[in-house]
Amino acid sequence: MMSWDNLEYFCLSTNYTRSGSKEVYNRIAGWAFDNTRIWKNSVSLGADGSIVNTTKWQLNNDGSGKLASGSIAWDAAGNVTFAPSVSLAWDTAVQKGRIYARGTGANRNESRIVKVNGQELSVSNSRGLALTVLNRNTLALVSTAVYDVYNNDTNRISLAIALDAIGSDRIVVLTSYDAIGMNTRLCTALQRCGGSSLIIADSRIPYVLIGIPGIGKDNGLLSLTDSGSTAPFAELSTSVVDGIPQGINCSGKLTTYIDGNGIYTGSISVNQIRVDANLKVGGRLLRREYYRMRCLE
Prior knowledge:
Elements: E1 10-15, E2 23-28, E3 31-33, E4 37-40, E5 43-46, E6 51-53, E7 57-59, E8 65-67, E9 72-74, E10 80-82, H1 89-95, E11 98-103, E12 113-116, E13 119-120, E14 128-135, E15 141-147, H2 153-164, E16 170-177, H3 184-192, E17 207-211, E18 221-224, E19 234-241, E20 244-245, E21 257-259, E22 262-264, E23 268-270, E24 273-275, E25 280-281, E26 284-285
Antiparallel strand pairs: 1-2, 2-3, 3-4, 4-5, 5-6, 6-7, 7-8, 8-9, 9-10, 11-12, 11-19, 12-13, 14-15, 14-16, 16-17, 17-18, 19-20, 21-22, 23-24, 25-26
Helix pairs in contact: 2-3
């Protein structure tokens, strides 16, 4: 059946002139068909209701199928299988804005690691502290350098100078490898970026600090273990929201914290007993070395 302008709408025919076989020429709206299927180009609809495009994709009548040449496949129960080559958009969403850092010591000789959004950055495994600087808005790598601060005051001061030169529009990540050491000058620079007041003598211990320049002492994220042969690595993992690694205190007004010297806080109120930041109870100043409170009945 043809239109006036010679367009084929429908046709049923068989060519018996072919030697040793026959050619079926059945068409409807440009699709060929026989008694088992209907097809056009590489797409075929079978008698059982399955639709196949050669090896590219397939939708079976039992609910199973495949896409992307089989890289994505599912069974009739809906169990989906992804080939290793498939990159999922939600994987990117999960990883977005994440920082992972690992510091090691000679107790367990493994590489230091800094990852951003699941991608490991290239950071040297030279001895000492590696300073990795990231853009707070994009987490793009700004710079990385390693300072051998083990038994070396010159390098400690160099690292301190480098830290002091970094602005608050950056995130700093410090990771250890093999051995580290600090002096007062370096400790002060680390405190500016959120580090603690603890000065680590030359030691082969794992250390990690994630901070922001200018946030002040004890406001960053710090992981520090020990030099025992079974001690864990120093590891931190955080999500960055609006340029702030979660867990970091950017106000600079931390009133309760723990460091190597003790526990520090503001006022404590328990029923009728009040202890202020100067360790005064009922107006009386107590000695820090020893204090006793007596509750009157």
